[in-house]
Amino acid sequence: MRKRDMGIAIAAAAFLSGAAYGQDAAPAAPKGKAGYFANSDLQNVWKDLEARQVLNKRVLEGGSHSINIRIVRPTDAPLSHANSLDVWLVTAGSATAITGGELIDAKKRPNSDDAAGTSIKGGVEQALQAGDVLYVPAGVPHGFTNIKGFRAFLIRFDSK
Questions:
Q1: Least CB-packed of 8, 27, 39, 67 within 10 Å?
Q2: 3-state secondary structure of 67
Q3: How much of the chain is in helix, strand and coil states, percent to nearest 5?
Q4: d(Cα 158, Cα 156) in Å, to the nearest integer?
Q5: Which residues contact 54 (CB under 8 A, 6 or more apart)?
Q6: Between vectors from CA 116 to CA 56 and to CA 96, what angle results, nearest 5°?
Q7: Would you state the pLDDT for residue 48?
Q8: What angle do CA 49, 54, 58 make, to 5 degrees?
Q9: Which DSSP helix (H) or strand (E) runs through 71?
Q10: Got the DSSP string for 95-152?
Q11: Phi and psi at residue 100, in whole multiples of 5°?
Q12: So what's the pLDDT on residue 16?
């Protein structure tokens, strides 16, 4: 499957639970019908984020789940989420994911279930590239190194 077609397939699969595309605020997931994100719209979001140096755009809010377009940078702190899990669908670039282990100097972030740290001790490293999927359960520290143009759809689900 070509990268472009795979991106469309991934987005469509993710949106079977419902989606809609919004320009500013993340739209609520539709109920009783499927949603659709056109690849051209997704590409425009990537370009806009890069131009504005913004790392994340929430494109769907489902209450217990969300879909985000995410750019990862080397300065991003490793995280752990107490009550939610992440599914990363890598669309471009590469990175090394570090998962598990212990989040060093963890501090809870305000208004979220996130804890951010300075590094991860004793984690497992996994190379990621376009087409890969990374699943991170609640409570598992995760971060990225060796980042080269890394882009992903980040789908988050409440797990508790």
A1: 39
A2: strand
A3: 20, 45, 40
A4: 7
A5: 48, 71
A6: 65
A7: 92
A8: 75
A9: strand 65-71
A10: EEEEESSEEET-EEPTTSSEEE-SEEESPEEEEEETT-EEEE-TT--EEEEEEEEEEE
A11: 80, -160
A12: 31
Q: In Å, how far are 42, 72, 118, 124, 145 from 68, measured between CA atoms?
A: 11, 12, 23, 25, 20
pLDDT of residue 39: 87
Task: Round to whole Å and give the CA distance between 110 and 81.
Answer: 12
- Return the amino acid letter for 105: D
Q: How many CB atoms lie within 10 A of CB 58?
A: 16
Q: Give me Rg for the CA atoms of the chain.
A: 15
Q: Mean pLDDT per segment of 10 residues, for the chain of length 160 residues?
A: 42 35 64 86 90 91 92 94 96 97 96 93 98 97 96 92
| 67 close to 79: Cβ distance less than 8 angstroms | no
d(CA 155, CA 160): 16
Which structure tokens are listed for 24?
């500013």
Cβ atoms of residues 139 and 157 within 8 Å: no
Task: Provide the phi-psi class of 53: left if phi over 0, else alpha when psi is between -120 and 50, else beta.
Answer: left
Residue 75: both structure tokens together: 């300065």
